Amino acid sequence: MPEGEKPNPHGAAGSLGGIKLFGVPIRLHFTFVLLLVFLLFIGVGDRQSGPMTVVYVLALFASVLLHELGHTLVARRYGIRTLEIVMYPIGGVSRPERQPAAREELWIALAGPMVNLLLAVVLMAWVAAHQGFQAIGELAQPTDANLAERLALGNLLLCVFNLLPAYPMDGGRILRSFLARHRTEEEATRIAAGAGQSLAFLMGLAGLLYGNYMLVFVALFVYLGAFQEGAAARGRILTAGFTVGAAMITDFRTLEHGATIRDAGDLLLKTSQHDFPVMHGGQVIGLLTRAALVRAMMTAGPESYVAGVMERAFVRLTPETPLTGALPQLSVAGGAALVMDAEDHLVGMLTSEHLSAFILLRQATVRQASGPV
Question: Domain 244-366 carries which CATH code?
Answer without folding.
Answer: 3.10.580.10
